Amino acid sequence: MKAKSPEFSRTTITELMIPSYANFGGKIHGGILLSLMDKVAYVCGTKHCGAYCVTVSVDNVNFLQPVEVGDLVSMLASVNYVGNTSMVVGIKVIAENVRESIVKHTNTSYLTMVAKDDKGELVKVPPLLLETEIDIRRFAEAIKRRKLKADFEQQMNQEKTDFALQKEINLLRDQRCEVNLRN
């Protein structure tokens, strides 16, 4: 299986933000942006592996700045990492106010996609050909994020196993909550 560069599958989707995309506060609903991120990740991942791709996780969705009605939003996607059957697609979201020529970076997110065949079985994806320092940095960062996520999940599972009510109540002591246990 021949390696493919991130450039091979790099994808941009651009869409005008219309009033029906707005939330109750008048800004573009986060769910609209997440849907667009999922679409561009699908295209990018599918271009890389030539197979149907599905999203298995979405990491680090931070809404840095609001997106306004009338903004032209571009989703820039790149395969940053590949495993055996999975890929991490990095997405940078840019919103442009076309009337005022103001461009702002509103989101960065990482979606893990897996490749499947026509029967729904996982399929191996091509290796990633790293051609630039940026490619290497992104691949290494993805490895570090995966390790941090695995360590966090392991720690949380251990904490569930070792649950001690009084210890958890002590953790809540200086928080904005009240504990009133019912018997």
From TrEMBL:
One of its GO terms (biological process) is acyl-CoA metabolic process. GO terms for molecular function: long-chain fatty acyl-CoA hydrolase activity. Residues 7-119 form the HotDog ACOT-type domain. Keywords: Hydrolase. GO terms for cellular component: cytosol. It comes from the Bacteria. It holds the Pfam family 4HBT. Belongs to the acyl coenzyme A hydrolase family. This is Acyl-CoA thioesterase. It comes from Marivirga aurantiaca.
